[in-house]
Amino acid sequence: MTFFSRHDMSSTIIAGPILRRASCERLVFWLASRRPVQFRLLLPDGAPQELTGERQQQLQVGDRCFIQLLDVELETPLPADTLVAYDLQWRTSEQDEWHGMADWASELCYPGERLPQLVIRSRLEEVLHGSCRKPHHVAPDGLVAADTWLRQCHAQPLSRPAVLMLSGDQIYADDVAGPMLTAIHQLIAELGLYPETLEGALVADSAELFTSPLNYYRRSELLPSIKGNQTLQQRFFEGARKPIFTTSSADNHLITLAEVLAMYLLVWSPEPWRGLSDAQPELSPERQQQYQTERQRLAAFVEGLPAVRRLLAHLPTLMIFDDHDVTDDWNLTAAWEESAYGHPFSRRVIGNALVGYLICQGWGNDPDAFRGDSMALLDAWSERPTSESQDRLIDHLLKFDRWHYHLPTSPKLLVLDTRTRRWRAESNLSHPSGLMDWEALTELQGELLNHEAVVIVSPTPVFGVKLIEVIQKIFTWFGKPLLVDAENWMAHKGTANVILNIFRHARTPANYVILSGDVHYSFMYDIKLRHRGGEPHIWQITSSGIKNEFPSRLLDVLDRLNRWLYSPRSPLNWFTRRRRLEITPHPPVSASKGERLLNRSGVGYVRFNDAGEPVCVQQITAEGAVDFVADKAAEPEASLSREER
Prior knowledge:
Blueprint: E1 13-22, E2 26-33, E3 38-42, E4 49-50, E5 56-62, E6 65-73, E7 84-85, E8 87-91, H1 101-104, E9 117-118, E10 126-130, H2 142-153, E11 163-166, H3 178-191, H4 206-211, H5 230-237, H6 257-268, H7 285-303, H8 305-314, E12 317-319, H9 334-341, H10 344-365, H11 373-383, H12 387-399, E13 405-407, E14 412-415, H13 438-448, E15 453-457, H14 466-477, H15 493-504, E16 511-516, E17 523-529, E18 537-542, H16 552-565, E19 581-585, E20 603-608, E21 614-621, E22 624-627
Parallel strand pairs: 10-11, 11-12, 14-15, 15-16, 16-18
Antiparallel strand pairs: 1-2, 2-6, 3-4, 3-8, 5-6, 7-9, 10-20, 13-14, 17-18, 17-19, 20-21, 21-22
């Protein structure tokens, strides 16, 4: 596929179908269309089911853009562990003819198929998971690698993953390439995505923003230039230099809701790219060079989108936000929250990203959670997209507390919200907040009771690399947590103690698997409580990023230094909160001596046995699968420490 190539722009369906939830009794799909359409679902050995009422919820977000959520309670339950072909057919109000997927989505089928096929697994036996997909990063797209992997086993229902779990940073709203922003603005114009006014900014509305000389690579200058906004500008909008880890850039930070929605369409489907022009903004010579470099990287990203769209049509796909879905360091500290939510412009920017998350991610995760006020306010904005209706919706979502959800699978799958229900450090507002507050953790413990095994999705690893956590703690002591993304479960004493006590509770599961992302490298830890006969048994499995990687030389230094400083005999282990745990790393099979972390973009794969224990853990990459194996000859690296890794 040629980047920005011209093609027929008549396609009605511009994104999807993305299969969101799938059980024998219920299917949920997400799509986007250029026109209002009526859908019907055709399944094997059944009559077409026209989707009316709450079975098809259609949300208009622009003059020529409609988001569809198809929530189908099935009249006849589907069989488990069986290939099920499905056909989503559509027609417009002006037409009687139904258009089947063989006509409008033939490229979504694997070779030899006429229609896409789903499988509903009877157990949560296999899972794909990953996070951090930055379109203009140089690394290959892990979702394309996952499609290649699935193509090899798609006809074998018992080899199909039960779910694809995207555990954060599905978009980078705060780190946008110049050519991506160009595509976003062209798509906004093509689809007529709704404009908006902007209170408290140097531009009055979205139209003025898009024509402003500050529109490209200079958005950090858009806040009013007054002393009272200096803290906000530094914390929220400027690309803060992070010498220990990386340098982030917010120069093209998404601002309007239309920009957020356009980006979702552009990262999930090739259709919105068809027909976009080759135009580019006027830039300085230095920015021109950056623009062309980003353009080359985006071209490879766009070429992989047909495979990504096919993957998402075949696998039930769940999602949860992390910070970049909204903005870097989102809710990191109470001081950050006071600054960001206390100004109408930054509150709108954060709120727009959260509304975009609701429409494109959260809604399909758990449709029942948003019935009532959430959908009423969303519908009110859609019918009358004024600044007042948008602010009412944003105010509601900033207080909303049901972003988390679970699947009643075996083992049970729990997906945590570690962003909006935080345990604030009230004694020092600049210290990192706990990732979940006491009330949220209490609810979590209730969900865990009386289960033999559970899979927990925590966007940030519960058990991370100890040295990196120590570096984050040092920067926090000096009042600079924002410089190093000082977000980890052990950074806040209250949260750390409660989550560790939950693991020790006698009525909580014997086997925990924690799936995480966020950190831009992958690893696996095998964790046991000392002096408790091996129970509970915890596995921390981290896969990151899908299209992102850690600076390789720096990671190699940190990996080896961590192993030396926190070896089993190191006295430093006694100063950690994890000292009652025995933690054994499972190095990647390709690792050199002393290497514990894998720095390669891709998607994680985990297979469980009947007891909920992981028996196969891999990182699926463009170069092939990399196994994580237990080195039984190795000593446990954290035999003293629950906080050590």
